[in-house]
């Protein structure tokens, strides 16, 4: 089920345009508008299969203009059996017209930087289109033995499991790894047939079939402990790109369903950072703010005999969507007294447990009071 407009993860304009260009370069016959809106990152999150997509279509029209202004040759192809039917128009970026001009050349240092950028993108996207981009750079004279490749592992060391998982996904190999869930004292061995590796909320997720449970599961790559190894003699048939869309749709739905209500200290680091990700201000909050403004200082000041004005600071309410309660709890605990969790109760308790643990670690106490 698609998320509503106010529950859609934010995709930057640059990311949407880049995803659109990659998709249009990858196709020989072109993509229809419906294909683009339903599958390309930045559109598909708000696409309604049986609803009104007028706003999304207008955004696509603006994006087409932006792409052309960048000098990218976007062309339309009419259906030969139904010319003039705008619904069946196909869009593509012809590869011949997108080649570099013959008089453009790069120095060895420039080629090394381009190769590094393409390698990082490839390792961070699992995109067939980005692999083609790397091949195009190779055709300019950068071979695979270029020493710049030695820098790539340092850039992706945070999720060391990415490379073996992507390799197993490409070859249809079942993998095994140790996975440490929050709250568990030791990791458990998982045997998984990888179906997709996707980026959601700035974190990489493995979507696959747990071979022991015979059910699909989603794993955070950052919670994989130790090496990822292939299981000898166990293979599967890869499902193609459809599983990646399915994984992202499920993560989007989870993100939209989970809402946290927080009170943050105005002007604090927490207020600045968390307000940028706010899910939307509630009308009641706006009305309350208006009432406070209309009341002036009467409700917010106390006059002392020395005529010193003491103003009560009203906490700012922030609502956030999230996919993983433990990751959010880790973040919120780091803000200390700048954040108070109102709901849900499970998040409030998770943050409190972390704060009590920090207190006990510094005081030597082992008695944490109940929430």
From TrEMBL:
<dbReference type="Pfam" id="PF25583">
    <property type="entry name" value="WCX"/>
</dbReference>
<dbReference type="InterPro" id="IPR051534">
    <property type="entry name" value="CBASS_pafABC_assoc_protein"/>
</dbReference>
<feature type="region of interest" description="Disordered">
    <location>
        <begin position="275"/>
        <end position="303"/>
    </location>
</feature>
<dbReference type="InterPro" id="IPR057727">
    <property type="entry name" value="WCX_dom"/>
</dbReference>
<feature type="compositionally biased region" description="Basic and acidic residues">
    <location>
        <begin position="275"/>
        <end position="294"/>
    </location>
</feature>
<protein>
    <submittedName>
        <fullName>WYL domain-containing protein</fullName>
    </submittedName>
</protein>
<feature type="domain" description="WYL">
    <location>
        <begin position="162"/>
        <end position="225"/>
    </location>
</feature>
<dbReference type="InterPro" id="IPR026881">
    <property type="entry name" value="WYL_dom"/>
</dbReference>
<dbReference type="Pfam" id="PF13280">
    <property type="entry name" value="WYL"/>
</dbReference>
<feature type="domain" description="WCX">
    <location>
        <begin position="317"/>
        <end position="355"/>
    </location>
</feature>
